[in-house]
Amino acid sequence: MRLVIIGGSDAGIRAGLRARQLDPITDVQLVVADDYPNFSICGIPYYVSGEVPDWRSLAHRTKDDLESAGLQLYLQERAVGIDVDARTVSTVFGAGETRAIGYDRLIIATGALPNKPPIAGLDQLGADDGVYLLHTMADTFAVTQTLDRGARSAVIVGAGYIGLEMAEALRNRGLDVTVVEQLGQVLPRTLDPKLATLVETELERNGVTVSCDTAVTSIARSDFGLQVNVSLVDQPGSLAADLVLVATGVRPDTQLAVDAGAKTGFGGALFVDTGMRTNLPDVYAAGDCVHTHHRLLDDPTYVPLGTTAHKQGRVAGENAVGGSATYAGSLGTQVVRIFDLVAAATGLRDPEAAGAGYQPATVYSEPYDHKVYYPGATPIALHLTGDTVTGRLLGAQLVGGSSAQIAKRVDILATAIHYGGSVDDIGTLDLSYTPPLGSPYDAVQIAAHAWRDNQIT
Amino acid sequence: MRLVIIGGSDAGIRAGLRARQLDPITDVQLVVADDYPNFSICGIPYYVSGEVPDWRSLAHRTKDDLESAGLQLYLQERAVGIDVDARTVSTVFGAGETRAIGYDRLIIATGALPNKPPIAGLDQLGADDGVYLLHTMADTFAVTQTLDRGARSAVIVGAGYIGLEMAEALRNRGLDVTVVEQLGQVLPRTLDPKLATLVETELERNGVTVSCDTAVTSIARSDFGLQVNVSLVDQPGSLAADLVLVATGVRPDTQLAVDAGAKTGFGGALFVDTGMRTNLPDVYAAGDCVHTHHRLLDDPTYVPLGTTAHKQGRVAGENAVGGSATYAGSLGTQVVRIFDLVAAATGLRDPEAAGAGYQPATVYSEPYDHKVYYPGATPIALHLTGDTVTGRLLGAQLVGGSSAQIAKRVDILATAIHYGGSVDDIGTLDLSYTPPLGSPYDAVQIAAHAWRDNQIT
Lengths: 457, 457
Fold this sequence. Notes:
Oligomer: homodimer
Number of helices of chain A: 12
CATH superfamily of the largest domain in chain A: FAD/NAD(P)-binding domain
Number of strands of chain A: 23
Number of domains of chain A: 3
Distance between the termini of chain A: 63 Å
Strand order of the largest sheet of chain A: 3-2-1-7-18
Largest sheet of chain A: 5 strands, parallel
Largest interface: A-B, 67 and 67 residues
CATH topology of the largest domain in chain A: FAD/NAD(P)-binding domain
Shape of chain A: globular
């Protein structure tokens, strides 16, 4: 059996590994566009910051590891066509050479492309000018070279988690950093405004300038670097920078699949069922190129996250070798560390829940991470969203200090949502307690009690 | 409605608060044997160590807080009899005065008493001699006075979590500390031997001498303090100490209730149904004096933990004022921090599971707490126990560094067990990830995959 996988990032590699684990004689061939299979793209900010000194360590597994696991890798080879009838993938490699690779089963894991916002001048500027849409290892090396050449100031367009992680990284490298966000808050797709304010304060406490409600209208080269023209609540302004990073989200990279007849779903992402099957015979897809089934929504949405890509890839790989795995669905769970603060979210935010037909209520509470009498206790800002009709837990957001176990506290709530749990369930969970690390009722349980008390009054 | 509660610790106070919250005109009277209502007994080691400078801050709530919440407190008043027919509790207070307090509903929250192992001489020695069964605030003050008088060495009998927390506390105070444990490992009721070894190493790394397989046969006063005679695998030996702490677990304090006709259940603890009702009319009980319903066991067991006491107290308080709450059941979830290590467990250990009729398998794995390329990654020693017939997750133990979010990682697994989840479910949970705080598959998911892979091979 010949399994061909297009894409060498989280979904593609995971699919290949799972296929070989279940069927060690399957012939697994991966077509990888660059020279960096199985790299941790999420780790790029920490290489740029200098915390990870060697970029090679960003590889989840080395090429040797992958080959030992039975994956045949075609690096720096680009898939340019899929012939579904002939069951071949045509590729380009080397100095324009081409070939057709035959498959019995195909997994498309082409990932995503960075969004390019409508900023005048953006199309004309590139890495040579100090303007980047950070997405690949090649982009990463271009950025670090610019830093090594002595760049002193940066404008980051977009205050999503990648924008903020890069703001921290560049600040750690000593640059003056300004984050420009078109919407009214940082992390606009992750946090409610009240909690986002805490993140904004932490950025500013660490010397990052944050400008929300600000659209970038144009970018141009000046004699002294780059000039970023902005519009702050309709007031024009201008920022100077040696380096501009555009981090305004991603969109699914689907052209190849669509040209072969693949159906698309939410947001133009590839349609797949929960077995990661496309509409094309024996063709699966996984990762940032597909729409995402969500445990709290009837219809798929789009959640391009590494965690999701791994799980979808695992399902695709299993099913491609004859399995019957099902993707359990996403909750959009995510966490980001910004300097000494950690922000995390899972499930639906209040407006999302309302839009999906729930009747949500969201209650704010501020429980401590552990007993206040023990040194180092810090408050956790917590939004809990539940359905007022059924009592079902729908979502949560937590912002707290880096010692407050935020990342795994959000996971407690994500686990309860996974099982369809109610807000009241949370208070009854048998969670661990010792004074330096928690409370008899954990912070998440105090939040659940607060939600319920708020419904009664 | 007159609600009388006997006991002013976690279960009693929580019951009273819940009753008043639901029914603000209920007359709630608490009979509290000492002067320290609502004290965090779990915090005592951190006061002894000096990390909590003021013992008063160990109060979850002050007397004023409790009275403002509508609880009438009778401090230093001891309940000595319950007349179920007359619906009165007779008490002794002050200089031997007595009275009878009438009730419509009664909640018994008398807690537990420290076990007194059969050690020759133990009955004849007390605080004046430097021998303590640490249980009350009065015991605590006696210990700290002994420390303030310059005690230089301590023997701790029992390597349960209280024994080990006190070992750390006394070591932090500069004492030579030896922990003597009759069984073959530390934390014998919490961890499997393989994981307990890590805790033992951490204790020794911090200068605590640990002697397992060692029974204390007698304690006697010598001219230079105390002589603790031990038997190490049948070899007699002797330890000198200025201070001996006996921490060999607790047993339910039930005499008062039993004398009034209360039925007992597991281990002599008071029988209660899941509504915390005893067999006596209008009499409820909660906390360390009652047996514990367990989500993975058909029959009650005994799990004297603060977390359990709070939840049972809440149910008792709710039902005493006409509610219909149900105690959701324990998983025995617990966590202890020993110096720079955190050890946690939830659910059943392999032999417990086998004894309860499951067909368990336990698999060891050692995933990192976060991506190894990011500085500070530490391995987590992890035992996952699942049922080989149904695939159900039955239990887990985790030991790792203090930055490894062990306390809340065990809670993810406790939450899954709460909902009857399978080991395979764990791998499908949508958990949060950022390189400094996790992995695309979290450590608990890597452990779940390892368990499954181990079943296949």
